[in-house]
Amino acid sequence: MAATAHAFDIQGHRGARGLMPENTLPAFTRALELGVTTLELDCGITRDGVVVVSHDPALNPDLTRDEAGRWLEAAGPAIAALSYDELQRYDVGRLKPGSEYARRFPRQQAVDGTRIPRLADAFALTRGLRNDAVRFNIETKISPLRPEETAAPDVFVRALLQVIRDTNMERRVTIQSFDWRTLQIVQKNAPEIPTVYLSAERVSPNNIQGEAASSPWTAGLHLSQFDGSVPRMVNAAGGRTWSPYHGDLSADALREAHALGLTVVAWTVNNETDMRRLVAWGVDGLISDYPDLLRRVIDGALPPSAH
């Protein structure tokens, strides 16, 4: 089931992190302007149970200022320790000058005064723009290694599913995670929502961990049970999509995943050469901080009739 041209999934990572403040309404707006098919984003849960869009379990000092406009000197309070109203006191609209993070994304445009949005706000944005086609790929930011930082998996998933159902977005979302425990809970409680199994072997968090070691991330499945095949692990777990780190993906593994009926969407691909190689292999989609570049690659790599 190799990707057909018309179905290629262009996912804007954290909206469009290379261009606008990550995981914010300005980033989502820019990504929509660029014609992404999916908004990729991350979620956390506040102390009062509000599902918000944030990659980091605690406020990131490289992109967070307090009410007085001062940069946080270290990682700030955990999202789970703040109420939604308390969270709104922080500005996340600019990268800290001189930080390594800012050097990584020199094209990111600052939007001072930007706040961490609710997931419901991201949904409302697309409704306000009358965009009923774009999908949302929502990551549960949770770690089995640091359970104290977030809500428990069942609580996390229950809150997320409630927002999705309250806004009638079941048919427009997928839920992804490195923590496969949360995906198993989704499959049990909302089988109509596709799950996306994230994997990383060469980079953090290495949730696969090799055949010699069991992993706390993979819901009791071990690589050794599947002859070293991550696609077979994902298939056995009940996933519909495998989303590997692009540097881990091989053409052989892609073919195996497709033979199993899996969709394959690689992350996070910012280099044009890598994009072209993966498109040529036949991936079903790519996640990128630069959806503008990815859009140009796809427009040039796929037949004109596909657009």
Query: Separation of termini?
Result: 20 Å
Structural class: alpha/beta
* Rg of Cα set: 19 Å
Let me know the largest β-sheet.
8 strands, parallel, barrel
Percentage of residues in helical conformation: 25-40%
**How many DSSP E strands?**
9
Individual helix count: 10
| Envelope shape | globular
Q: What pattern of helices and strands is seen along the backbone? A: EHEEHHHEHEHEHEHEHEH
**What share of residues are in beta strands?**
5-15%
Q: Uncertain segments of ≥5 residues (pLDDT<50)?
A: 1-6
Strand order of the largest sheet: 1-2-4-5-6-7-8-9
Quote the average pLDDT. Answer: 95
Overall description:
The protein is globular and about 55 Å long. The protein has ten helices and nine strands. With 307 residues, the chain is an alpha/beta fold. Helix 6 (180-189) links the parallel strand 5 (173-177) and strand 6 (195-199). Strands 1-2-4-5-6-7-8-9 form an eight-stranded parallel barrel, surrounded by seven helices.
What descriptors fit this protein?
alpha/beta, 9 strands, 10 helices, 29% helix, 8-stranded parallel β-barrel, 307 residues
Chain-wise SSE layout:
Elements: E1 9-12, H1 25-33, E2 38-45, E3 51-53, H2 84-87, H3 100-104, H4 119-128, E4 135-140, H5 153-166, E5 173-177, H6 180-189, E6 195-199, H7 230-237, E7 241-244, H8 251-259, E8 263-266, H9 272-281, E9 285-288, H10 291-301
Helix pairs in contact: 1-4, 5-6, 7-8, 9-10
